Amino acid sequence: MIIYSFQFRTINIRQFSSALYITRDKAQKNFAVLTPIIDFDEQLKQKDRLIENIKARQLPIDLNVVKERWDFFKNIENKKGILEQTKSELGPIITRLMKHPDNENFGEEINKLKLHLKVVKEDLKSLRSMSSEVEEEIVLQVLNLPNSLHKKTPLDKECEVFSYLEKIESTSESHLTIANKKGYIKYISPLHCYLKSDAALFERAMQNYFNEELLNLNYTQFSNCDFVRSVVVEGCGSNPWLDNCEVFTLENVHNFNRDDLNKLHLSGASSLYSFMAYFTKHCLESSHLPIKAFCLGRNYVTAKPCSSPSLFHLNQSSDIGIFIATLEKEDILETVLNEAIALYKQLGFHFRIVLVAANKLKRAESLRMSIEMFSNHLLSYVEVGYVSFYQDYLSKRLLFNYNDGKNRKYPYVVNGSLMNIHKVVGCLLENKYLKKEHLMNDLLSKYAV
Amino acid sequence: MLFINSLKVIKPKLCIRRLQTSNQQGWDVPTAIHLDKDFLFNPKNIPLIESNIKSRKSMGNIRLLNELYQKLSQLNPSDISYEEVKGLFNEECRLIPNSTHPDVFEYGDEPKIVKYIGAKRKFDFPHKEFSEIGKRLNLVRTEQLGNLTGNRSYYLLGQMAELEQALIRCFVGDLIKNNFQLLSVPDILPRTIVESCGMNTRGERAQVYTLDPKIHPADLCLSGTSELALAGYLANQLIDETELPLKLCSVSRCYRAETSSTAEERGIFRVHEFTKVEMFVVSTPQQSDMILETIREQQEELFTALDIHFQVLDMPPHDLGAPAYRKYDIEAWMPGRNIYGEISSCSNCTDYQSRRLNIRYKDSNGKERFVHTLNGTACAIPRLLISLIETHQQNKGTVVIPEMLRKFMRDNEVIIRQKTIPELKLIKHKK
After folding, report:
1. What stretch or stretches form a coiled coil here (chain A) (predicted)?
2. What ipTM did this prediction achieve?
3. Chain B partners of A263 at a C-beta cutoff of 8 Å?
4. For the residues of A138-171, what is the DSSP string, one character each?
5. Which of A252, A328, B55, B301 would bridge with B317, disulfide CB 3.0–4.6 Å?
6. Are A191 and B188 a contacting pair at CB < 8 A?
């Protein structure tokens, strides 16, 4: 039989789990929320570009191996198709034959056909049981491929596109030391940090400032969910099954479906995940684009190892999340850049904006515009805000689309945190300590209450 | 006014009960409860404590606790059964509730209605429920979210999200004017802190989310109210009497795993996550009764200014939970669903939390005593929105914004249909 000619590596233990791509064998226990768009064949038309992209990002991916596995998977799918077709053709033939039992050679014919059908069914069954593993392995590899690179993404090193005011070169004590002297912060661990006194007022004032200014820039206010499920996390390019995943995972409560792959995570209302969850598996009219939204809220990320306590590596921060969805292929880098510059300039402190090098991007990012302030203690720049450009990478994975006449198209998505307020408090404490200035300036005092 | 950074750290003295914790995540939290032994283990008090437990419908058993106390005191820590008895003793300790205000003792099972403020609005048009108004004006989304953001999740959109921020800004501003100190608090707390404040974190009826211990450090819970973080902030602190009352406030996200399937609690009435402005006051035992009244009056003033109708209830013993000695609930009229719904509460927890978290003050004679802690909701968003939107809806379908919030909402007077929020169509097929 045809199928026995296949040679493939048997995977004894399923090493892969996904809530985003649920194979047939797992669909009985897990509800498949959606099936992401997989356009690997389309991507392969520009294979050289993809290889260069992977190289620039310094990713450990061998595209040729991925392609080989993909071809193998497609081959299995073809064989499955042939067997399914054979099965569907044999059925009616047998039924027809059964109506004429008097025909010569009836017994021999019918037994032959029945045996053929039995073999086809068995082969199909065994092929299906094996193909799920192959399918999951290769599809997850394909989903793990990076987004294409934006033409402005620097290939070797970051590129500064804007700088405001001069940085102070002097060295200061660390912001936590300064904060302790001033009674601004109680730092217990990256998970547990209190802002007090002017630092707490600064947080509120900054939220109120961005709230008003973003409304003036015609952004629509959203108040998002802090929880998201695994399907959204994966759809956004993170892997909730890996130890280093940036979202927190919650323990199932009340014994609710413990085997569910689609777990609950804590990511924060201002995060990309929460915005994408809103649009996942939904379609809108093109006339509604562009969508410009913002959300003042928490951002929760799992800790990255850090040598010393700092506000730069907290698990919980207050952020100004923005989300923009535009028509396909619309590039709004200039617009977003100018808005970020205008919003920061009014605050009256030194900052710069850089375009991040390809090897510093997350796989889902096509371009990342990083807003940085200077830490006088570390004597280096710290990212205090960012805007990432995702093109249609996320909208295809999470089925967020719009109608363009009779065509279904996928919006270009831009998302970021214009400000991580805790990080700004850290930098400003160090900057202002040297200048003997207060954390709250006149502008922010107006927004404090 | 005391600035909270001037607090001193107390080194814990000999204590009786160890809290069940394996991971304190760098917190300076007492590892034992300072039980009021003179009261709890005096046989003469058993009938009184028993009566209190019964009227609060609590699971506690004071006789068993006394027996275990006696047994434990006779055992040597090296005895084989010592640890087992100690475990049982600790568990029983957890079940003994705070005592109850004598006035409240008399109420039986029903709350006492303290007062009504305002009156039920009379509508001369068929008025709608929050969810209907929210949907029509494109202000809220609650549908098709279970598989993406969890059950009972919701998004507030456009002017509804602006209204949320306006309420926070208005309430925080008022608290700061009233000498509350603003703190920005962590939302993920060690189990010890949560349990020390009187909340159950384990078992089928727990309302507390826990981070998955297979992935993250064990015993980390999501805070259900910033009262927990504010109380935890003061753990092991010694405060001078002249600095009391100490008034703190915060804005935080609250996470609650509670479930509900009653029709009255549909929509965003009972949700798993919401924003809340919280008040937390630390006082001497002599001040706490009076301060509870002050907190209640402040809540009443703010809700009155929002022009909503509400009733103030003095809650009966069985509604106090374990920590509260007395609790007032404020229930706002929600004309769309034709009920009074709880939008706020304030509690006097006396020394229940301070004994668990070792929060003391030094009185004028230099003696260290346990403080009393009080907490109150200044503003819990979802239910306040229900009452506001349903009360101020207009015949044309729009909603009038209360006067005091308009300056925080670009001087708009009404909430109208949100045209910038796109109409979404669910993609029904999987691809």
Report:
1. 110-137
2. 0.92
3. 212
4. HHHHHHTSPPPPPTTS-SSS-EEEEEESPPP-S-
5. B55
6. yes
What is the least distance, in Å, from the CA of A231 to any CA of chain B? 7
Q: How far is CA A267 from CA A72, A230, B17, in A?
A: 37, 11, 36
Q: Does A183 touch chain B (CB under 8 A)?
A: yes
- What is the per-residue pLDDT for B304? 96
pLDDT in tens, B295-304: 999 999 999 9
Q: Is A390 an 8 Å CB contact of chain B?
A: no
Core vs surface per residue A284-320: b (16+ CB within 10 A) or e = beeebbebbbbbbbbbbbbeeeeeebbbbbbbbbbbb
Q: Which residues of B touch A223 (CB under 8 A)?
A: 155-157, 160-161, 164, 275
Q: Considering only A189-203, A259-273, B17-31, B244-258, which range has the smallest mean pLDDT?
A: B17-31
CB atoms near residue A426 (< 10 Å) = 29
Helix (H) or strand (E) holding B12: none
pLDDT tops 70 at residue B96? yes
Rounded to 5 degrees, what are φ and ψ at A425? Answer: -55, -45
The residue extents of the domains of chain B are: 33-95, 102-415
Does A231 touch chain B if contact means CB atoms closer than 8 Å?
A: yes
How would you class B169 by CB atoms within 10 Å of its CB: exposed for 0-12, middle for 13-18, buried for 19 or more? buried
User: Quick check: A143 pLDDT over 70?
Assistant: yes
Q: Quick count: other Cβ atoms within 10 Å of Cβ A170?
A: 12
Task: Identify the burial level of A328 via C-beta atoms within 10 angstroms of its C-beta, where 0-12 means exposed, 13-18 middle and 19 or more buried.
Answer: middle
Full-model pTM: 0.91
- Contact at 8 Å (CB) between A145 and A61? yes
Among A108-112, A168-172, A380-384, the minimum mean pLDDT is found in A108-112
Summarize the confidence of residues B270-284 as an average pLDDT.
95
CB contact under 8 A, B212 and A281: no
Inter-chain residue contact B184 with A194, CB threshold 8 Å: yes
| Cβ-Cβ contacts under 8 Å, A211 against chain B | 162, 165
Would the pLDDT of A19 be above 90? no
| Burial profile B235-259: b = 16 or more Cβ within 10 angstroms, e = fewer | bbbbbebebbbbbbbbbbbbbbbbe
B164-194 pLDDT, tens digit each: 999 999 999 999 999 999 999 999 999 989 9
- What pLDDT score was predicted for residue A307? 67
Determine which of A37, A191, A302 to mutate to test the interface with B (most B C-beta atoms within 10 Å): A191
pLDDT at A417 over 50: yes
Chain B: closest CA distance from residue A53 (Å) = 27
The one-letter amino acid at B402:
P
The neighbouring-strand residues paired with B12 are: none
User: Is B251 annotated as belonging to a binding site?
Assistant: no
For residues B70-97, give the mean pLDDT: 90
Closest CA to A252 of A244, A260, A241: A260
Are the beta carbons of B164 and A200 separated by less than 8 Å?
A: no
What is the spatial distance between Cα B50 and Cα B46, in angstroms, rounded to a whole number?
Answer: 6
Closest chain A C-alpha to B186 CA, distance in angstroms: 5
Q: Exposure of A87 by Cβ count < 10 A (0-12 exposed, 13-18 middle, 19+ buried)?
A: middle
Query: Are A220 and B158 a contacting pair at CB < 8 A?
Result: yes
Answer CATH for B102-415 from 3.30.930.10, 3.40.50.2300, 3.40.1190.20, 3.90.420.10 = 3.30.930.10
Give A224→chain B minimum CA distance, Å: 5
